[in-house]
Amino acid sequence: MKEEAHPFRSGRRSRKKKGLSQAGLGRLLKVGQSTIAMYEKNRRSPDYKLLKRLADFFEVTTDYLLGRTDRPSDVPHNEALQVAAFDPLFVDLLKQASQLTEEEKQLLVKHWKQALRLVIQKKGDGKQRGGSHWTSGKIEC
Predict the structure, then answer these.
(1) Residue 14 domain-assigned (yes or no)
(2) Same domain flag for 88 and 126
(3) Domain carrying residue 116
(4) Residue 132 has pLDDT above 50, yes or no
(5) Residue 110 maps to a domain
(6) DSSP letters along 9-40, please?
(7) How far apart are CA 123 and CA 92, in angstroms?
């Protein structure tokens, strides 16, 4: 049977995922077990400060706790995207790209794809010859 739909359903899911009882979570957050139970039964709503503390504790978004999304975090699901999202080089590139016009973005994508093909080709050539085109974190072209 599908879990009942109410704003704090994901809070219960997060608590159980951490292996905590309502009382245990209450002790950690310095609120009573009955308070946690009321949140989970949708008889009471956490105030803004406690909602933020819960999100920080469970490392999820407040939207997830409130049932507004099924994604626990804003980080992309794709592992490669997660790496890029935290790599300072990619973060800087994406910030700069966000200021481009749509036409400039399309041009950038075209060149990006060409560069990736070149990198993959050179990387493959290096493996076949037993060498590498990778030196000091830079790609030799």
Answers:
(1) yes
(2) yes
(3) 79-139
(4) no
(5) yes
(6) HHHHHHHHHTT--HHHHHHHHTS-HHHHHHHH
(7) 25
pLDDT at 140: 40
Burial of 128 (0-12, 13-18, 19+ CB in 10 A): exposed
pLDDT digits (tens, 9 = 90+) for 57-81: 888 888 887 778 777 776 555 566 6
33 shares its domain with 85:
no
Q: How many CB atoms within 10 Å of residue 115?
A: 12
Q: C-alpha angle 128/130/136, rounded to 5°?
A: 115
Residues 101 and 60 in one domain: no
CA 42 from chain center: how many Å?
27
Question: What's the rounded Cα separation, in Å, for the pair 70 and 106?
Answer: 31
Angle at 69 between CA 48 and CA 60, to 5 degrees: 55
Provide the CATH number for the domain around residue 27: 1.10.260.40
